[in-house]
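We now fix the convention by which a protein and its fold are recorded. Think of the row as the fold of the chain written in a discrete alphabet. Here is one such record, which you should read through line by line.
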Amino acid sequence: MPDSLAAVDAGFVELRELRFSQRAAGLMKAAELLEAGEEEFALWMAREMGKPVTQGRAEVAKCAATCRYYAEHGEAMLAPRELEGARLLHQPLGPVLAVMPWNFPFWQVFRFAAPALMAGNTILLKHASNVSGCARAIVRLVSSAFGRDDFLRAVFVSGKEVEPLIADPRIRAVTFTGSTGVGREVAAAAGRHLKKSVLELGGSDPYLVLEDADLARAAKTCAAARMVNAGQSCIAAKRFLVAAAVHDAFVERLRDELATFKPGDPFEPATNLGPMAKASLRDELHAQVTGSVKAGARLLLGGEPVELREKSYYPATLLCGVVPGMRVFDEETFGPVAAVIRVEHEAQAIELANQTAFGLGAAVFSGDVDRARRVAEQLDTGTVAINGQVVSDPRFPFGGVKDSGWGRELGEHGIREFVNVKTVRG
């Protein structure tokens, strides 16, 4: 660990002096290497955390596109600005500790790393322990892309060893993606040492289906949004607030769409539902489902664990009759479980959508885009999709409010999170 920290500290002295064009060349090379290694990296993800290879390939392609985006636009985002006789400079902070999760083992890293490297910051990566092979592959790729191994290094340490890293004066900031509970601990440690932090935490994303929605489109989109990565995503759709007038018709369509997701071998190209990453996660999810059924929810699909190829699977599961007080409403469900809540009117949909400690993403389905936008403005989240699925996109800022964290990744706002905005007057 000391060698890796010393390396990125020394590397920062070099990286900050590189021209933007040189940093961009490194990111362009990283994009090429990601595309060339797409199959290898997808297999690493399937092997370590169960992501189907087709989804792994898409994840790698998104990483490559993000590297190119910042290579092409990063300099303009960080260019000096003139403001009423003052010059505003955007200068890198230094080595940033990145504590990353297992569910998108390449995307979560590159979502942060591409803008951070373009800004001139080096990176000390503490990845999840169950994706250490992915972490090593990322380190090798970035080293090859930039022709040196001190811009991004990985440390393989326990969670208990994160706070000493944050405390080290060579670490200038920290970014964390993961659970709200651990996020609080990271934020507290960063605060004690007066270091900038960006936190992307849990979510319980509400999808509002209003009475004038295109139900076929809404059901298809909602199913895909719930089932992405076997539901193991902070921005997966989790609670579906459906207008009473279309509730039964929508539930029938949603059940049909969810039924097309079948547990299978993640190494098989046809598989669209892989295993859960850990048996403990599957067991906790099942407890949330059974607890909600005991409280009065109706189980329409799935609901029983599946053992397949010595992996922990959970089937596509649909619950309706869900109300506040049930676990699948009150808690984040990190797996392929859809919870449907009947609402009588738009105001109730908004009220229940906001009745959560989380505030990451949401979606609104309506045939009236102006109405959907008006509803979107009243939702307490960082992102709202209209007639579509919540996704992260390198062009736009991404992050949450409330227990979903603070700060932003991606877009112009994201690349400026880890720079010093220096005002020069006179």
Remarks:
- Residues 2-201+400-425 form a domain with the Aldehyde Dehydrogenase; Chain A, domain 1 fold (CATH 3.40.605.10).
